[in-house]
Amino acid sequence: MKRVEITEAAAKIVRQLQEAHGELIFHQSGGCCDGSSPMIFPEGELYLDESDILLGTIGDVNFYMNKDQFEYWRHTHLTVDITEGRGASFSLEIPLGLRFIIHSRLFTEAEGKAFNKL
Amino acid sequence: MSYSKPEFKEKYHNFINGKFVPPIGGEYFENRSPIDNSLIAKYPRSQKEDVELALDAANAAKEAWGNTSATERATLLNKVADIIEANLEEFALVETCDNGKPIRETLNADIPLAVDHWRYFAACIRSEEGGATELDQNTLSMNIKEPLGVVGQIIPWNFPLLMLSWKMPPALVTGNCVVLKPAEQTPSSATLLMEKIADVFPPGVVNIIHGFGPEAGKPLASSSRVDKVAFTGETTTGQLIMQYASKNLNPVTMELGGKSPNVFFNSVMDEDDAYLDKAIEGAVLFAFNQGEVCTCPSRLLVQEDIYDAFMERVVARTKAIIQDNPYDVNTMVGAQASNDQYEKIQSYFKIGKEEGAKVLTGGAANKLSGDLANGFYIQPTILEGHNKMRVFQEEIFGPVLCVTKFKDEAEAIEIANDTLYGLGAGVWTRDAHQLYQIPRAIKAGRVWVNCYHAYPAHAPFGGYKKSGFGRENHVMMLNYYRQTKNMLISYDKNKLGFF
């Protein structure tokens, strides 16, 4: 059981980016324009501390979200997918003409119980 | 009346040092119109070397430009305003093609407002005075405002020329040189502007770099050769830009969006009059610009005793929205700016429904016919639910309204402030006390009272909480692009007597 998962198509892009950029992390953005999207950066690029929650590891990439935002997301399961598009952020997939995107669903009862303590 | 897609060249270039310059690496990206997903043109896929060229030009120009007179700079800003105004229809068409927004908006809002911002800042600098204070009989403290030098600006795609016109004029008029990166989704109007004003400013004062965030945006935002970065966008990129600025000890301004509440008290329905009609429109303004507005009034809070009657009218007005070809002057809502936005909005419909939100109207993509079938259209949508749902908490950036009810003033304020953001808010009431007290209690940088979505140049705009900091527009903006030089002058002939 995982809070966050990734589709095969998105995982393929992650592997491609890893070859080009090395170790990576995902961070879920909030706010306007290109916000509410997962962004991928070289590890160490974005300063992370205890205000960022590690939701899980997809492939071998850690997925983080700011704690404040997590409070509103904690009851939902996330799947990282990839779609065609253009974003204006610094996320590494953008030059490929692709964007990572989040699909969400409510936790099942079992997932809810398992993850309640986080 | 309907327009059609404007003509474009095959490809465009960066504007550096007063000239159009191809990217050093020779790479371009394809820019497409969200109206029908057709190709517009190719734009430079710039890299760090291109950004460095622009920074060379800006740094070389800053000394002379910073020493021009306020009169001279204001005159040039006014010239830009006149040029945009003289070509208003051309700018409007290019903007509609690039962004997908309806032509009636670009003709009547985006472009005329952009013109006004250039004029406003030209006027500001001419009417401004510095400060001099006599601290004692022999000591004068004089404050002189000096430009920062070179400013990096990264702007979004929702109002491309308008956002450029919010950021560029105050930086230029205060004597700074600018390197601006338009969003890669909407590079066209900035390029058209450079074509039209290529000779207005001395070379190097205005520079435009196209490209992608990680390749061109980051080198600009992190360069030690910029003195300030201004950014409009989302929180993660905002944090990154602040990190880079911290390395350079540079100031930044951040405008990072919101989830703005639009609050309607029961007195709005005391009469069935022009004011009520205005209030209903005020609730439906969520669909303005396809909801792609940082201050989109995307959370509707309605007092419970008028809820059913009020919502009946809001839903009816929303259903009457014409969503069609953006080039048609009757179209009210056009296309979302890109496929990923289009997909993202639909994923919010899914989670909204799963969380139990009730769809009052819309709730799906809108498949238009002909060429428009390839465009990115979303039906204006109203979801009924509660404020803890994710659709109430995240900026969807689509024509999606989330509505909930409140009992009394205290609950209205509690719900309005239960958000990470604090950019905009709306308060609608006929009650004189509420008119003042409720806006004061809402933690947001701009509270519209009995109106919404007005953006005059003369009113400061910016966020509380995670919506960022710093303000845009208004005369106060000048000081976001300046330093204060304090000259402390003694007119005393006598020594201190210490040594």
Tell me about this structure.
The complex is a heterodimer of chains A (118) and B (499). Chain A has three helices and seven strands; from the N terminus they run βαββββαββα. With 118 residues, chain A is of the alpha/beta class. Chain A has a single domain, classed as Hypothetical Protein Aq_1857, Chain: A. The mean pLDDT of chain A is 92. Chain A is 24% helix and 37% strand. Chain A starts with a strand and ends with a helix. In chain B, the strands form six sheets. Chain B has a seven-stranded mixed sheet, sandwiched between helices. A six-stranded mixed sheet of chain B has the order 9-8-7-10-11-21, sandwiched between helices. In chain B, helix 2 packs antiparallel against helix 4 (103-127). The longest helix of chain B is centred in the N-terminal third of the chain and has 25 residues, at 103-127. Chain B is globular and about 80 Å long. Chains A and B meet through helix 2, strand 6 and strand 7 of A and helix 7, helix 8 and helix 11 of B.
Task: Give the arrangement of secondary structure elements.
The complex is a heterodimer of chains A (118) and B (499).
Chain A: E1 4-6, H1 8-21, E2 24-28, E3 38-42, E4 52-58, E5 61-66, H2 67-73, E6 76-84, E7 98-106, H3 109-115
Parallel strand pairs in A: 1-6, 2-5
Antiparallel strand pairs in A: 2-3, 4-5, 6-7
Chain B: E1 14-16, E2 19-21, E3 28-32, E4 39-44, H1 48-66, H2 70-86, H3 88-99, H4 103-127, E5 131-136, E6 139-147, E7 150-154, H5 160-173, E8 177-181, H6 188-197, E9 206-208, H7 213-222, E10 228-232, H8 235-248, E11 252-255, E12 261-264, H9 274-284, E13 299-303, H10 307-319, H11 339-354, E14 358-361, E15 381-384, H12 390-393, E16 400-406, H13 409-417, E17 421-422, E18 424-428, H14 432-441, E19 446-449, E20 464-465, E21 468-469, E22 482-490
Parallel strand pairs in B: 7-8, 7-10, 8-9, 10-11, 12-13, 12-18, 13-16, 15-16, 18-19
Antiparallel strand pairs in B: 1-2, 3-4, 5-6, 6-22, 11-21, 14-15, 17-20
